[in-house]
Amino acid sequence: MTYPVKNPLKGLALLLLTVVVVVLLNIPLGSLPAIGKLLDPVNGSLANADPVDEDFTAELDLPAMKGAATVWFDDRLVPHIHAANDHDLYFIEGYVHAKFRLWQMDMETRAAAGRVAEVVGEKALQFDRKQRRKGMGYAAENSLRAMEAEPRTKLMMDAYTEGINAYIASLSYRELPIEYKLMGFRPERWTNLRSALLLKFMADDLTGRSYDIAYTYLRDVLPAWQFELLFPEKVMGSTPVIPGGTVWDSTTLATPVAPSDSLAFPRFKPADFGERHEEGKGSNNWVVSGSRTASGAPILCNDPHLGLNLPSLWYEVQLQAPGINVYGASLPGTPGVVIGFNDNISWGFTNNYRDVKDFYLIKPVTGNSNSYWFAGRHLDYSKRIEHIAIKGRPDITDTVRYTIHGPLMYDERYNDKSGMRQNLAMCWMAHRATNEMLCVYLLNRAGNYNEYVNAIMNFQCPAQNMAYADRAGNIALWGQGQYVNKWKGQGKFVMNGADSSTLWGSLIPMRENPHVFNPQQGFVSSANQSVTDTTYPYYYNGDFVELRAWRINYVLGNLQKATVQDMFALQNDNYSLLAAQALPIMLTNLPSKLTPAEQKYVNLLRSWDHLLEPGSEAATVFQVWWAVLYNELWKGVLVSVPDHIWPLQERSMQLMSDSVFMMQGLGNCAPMDNNCTRIANSFHLAADSLAKLERTVGLQWHKVKNTSVSHLTKLAPFSYDHLDIGGWGNTVNATKSDQGPSWRMVVQMGKEIEAYGVYPGGQSGNPGSKYYASFLQHWAKGKYYRLQFLPNAATQNNPSLKYTWTIHN
Question: What is the spatial distance between Cα 389 and Cα 122, in angstroms, rounded to a whole number?
Answer without folding.
Answer: 9
